[in-house]
């Protein structure tokens, strides 16, 4: 399978995002490649995509495994020039853009803080947002997105099978990867241009898979249990633990107590 530029360009309605696209039949990691392009001052909104990502990186040093030709693995390069306290917002907004896209395909996806994409409680996608800060602003950012699209369940490693899914598993349909990419980029640029942060935070809470639910949360090496009550104005997680609101910048929800 080869990435086909025609359907992609036809539906792209952005000013910047994806107007420059670098396609590789295979690549270790689109995020790593994107950082190389940043060092060469590539254009704002440049997209790096591959059909076959060999060493996909996930959050917290996890690996991201994908089946060649069956999933969407790409990165977008941005030069935000925004204050560092906006970092979390970028990854939350990316999650929203992906769910905007999936909604158009009648897939009701939910978000797990900070930015996992869940369908029927299983992980269908993840986001790895990396940035370089200098002179007190976010100078450059690479947003990496992995979405399981046309995989069958047997194609996932056995140990993760009960926790993961793909669009095809959920809907029984094959999806055109190029069109999913265009659609996500259109929504992402639209949301990033939209400065009404409070409304976007509310949108995120509406699509959250665990709002007002008890969660087990891992922060550093410690697991804590509390009720996730929403987002702070900069997108941090607010969790009530022993009747006290605690704010987390990073960490991982390891379990949702449905
Ligand atoms: C996570 O859930 O831990 C985040 C996974 C992010 C995976 C994507 S795939 C495209 C991009 N390139 C990478 O090496 N990782 C991200």
Q: Could you walk me through the main structural features you see in this protein, from its secondary elements to its overall organization?
A:
This protein has 258 residues and is of the alpha+beta class. Helices cover 26% and strands 36% of the residues. The chain is built from 6 helices and 14 strands. The protein has a 7-stranded mixed sheet, with helices on both faces. Helix 1 packs parallel to helix 5, helix 3 packs across helix 5 (177-193) and helix 3 packs across helix 6. Biotin is lined by residues 29-31, 56-59, 62, 64, 73-75, 116, 126-128, 144-146.
Number of strands: 14
Largest sheet: 7 strands, mixed
Radius of gyration: 18 Å
User: What's the end-to-end separation, in Å?
Assistant: 40 Å
Order of helices and strands: HEHEEEEHEEEEHHHEEEEE
What general outline do the C-alpha atoms trace? Answer: globular
Identify low-pLDDT runs: none
Strand percentage: 35-45%
Q: Helix content range of the residues, please?
A: 25-40%
Oligomer: single chain
Q: How many individual helices?
A: 6
Ions and ligands: biotin
| Sheet/helix structural class | alpha+beta
Spatial arrangement of strands, main beta sheet: 1-2-5-9-8-7-6
Mean pLDDT: 95
